[in-house]
Amino acid sequence: MIFVILFYKKYNLTGKIPTEIGKLVNIKYLDSSNNNLTGKIPTEIRQLVNIKYLDLSNNNLTGKNPTEIQQLVNVNIKYLNLSNNNLTGKIPTEIEQLANLNYL
Question: What is the pTM of this model?
Fold first, then answer.
């Protein structure tokens, strides 16, 4: 079993989230909160099929709330935090299908 954790909280990261994030298919825990990440959340986020914890809060991410969340429906994600960014639009209704989500 591969257990992958990426913890980049408060690392002063800048720039966009690279589309290559989708290649991290075994990642379970990703915390890139409290940085200066900009741009849209890449559509490749939907490829994180093993993610349990995703925190991108307190950055400068822009664009609409990602509809790619709907692709995470079959994932056992328990924690999702996108707060304190510059995301617009409604929270996708597909979020209701994330049965194991404990924190939003």
Answer: 0.83
